[in-house]
Design a protein that fits this description.
Layout lengths: L3 E5 L22 H18 L3 E5 L15 E4 L2 E4 L10 H11 L5 E3 L6 H4 E4 L2 E6 L6 H10 L2 E6 L12 E5 L2 E4 L6 H10 L2 E4 L2 H4 L7 E2 L3 E5 L3 H9 L3 E5 L16 E2 L2
Parallel strand pairs: 1-2, 4-5, 7-8, 10-11, 13-14
Antiparallel strand pairs: 1-15, 3-4, 6-7, 9-10, 12-13
Length: about 260
Amino acid sequence: MTKTILMCEPTHFGIEYEINSWMHTDNSVDSVIATKQWQDLYGIYTRKLGWNVKLIDPVKGLPDMVFATDCCLIKDGKILLSSFRYPQRQPETAHFEKWFHENGYTNTKLSEHLFEGGGDNLVCGNKILAGHGFRSDPAAATEMREYFDCEVVSLKIVDPNFYHLDTSLTVLSDDTVAYYPAAIDEASQKRLKLTIPNIIEATHEEAKGFGLNAVSNGKTIVASNESESLLNKYRAAGFEVIGTSILEFRKSGGGAKCLTLEMS
């Protein structure tokens, strides 16, 4: 399946503030390595997979704009724009909204609640898996249910190291997800198992390599190559896997999925 995705080059990427447990201003980003890792990911999408990659111009002073997936959630041609919790990221939304409108994506709505787009919310078939606990408000689930007119499964995140749902859970196909169980509470684990037929469980060691922050077209998975054991679990489940080095972005709590806004 050919995807259309939106990315933002890491021109201004760096650790300029601390808003999650991975971010430390004294742990500076190597811009040369970060640029190469981003370009490698871009190359996987365009050359290996033949996906359509669109680009939004990076903005100085918005180092986390590179994490394009956080700007919104897109489903069935409708876009719910993010209302970021932290002031440092709030200006990103306007830049993405402007890009959407200039490129013909006009069916947009700004979330009325704290809501961090594809960082906390993942489309799985005709459902949305909605994370809350550190960044997004639980009430955003109701808003999504009404806006997208679909089932929304609310999952409470309890581990600050996996502050966004997409750092501990990835949708591999319409009926398969992989996740690190301890990142969400027990009630959410039970809810997930009742909702999704096929579940791959990752260990903490596998999860901290950010291989769960992955992108899949239902057949091929693109993910961090840090944990070979996790990639082998994907392969054992019948998926093709492309591993890539991405850990310079983990310094800011991001990985392959964070860098990738799936538009179709």
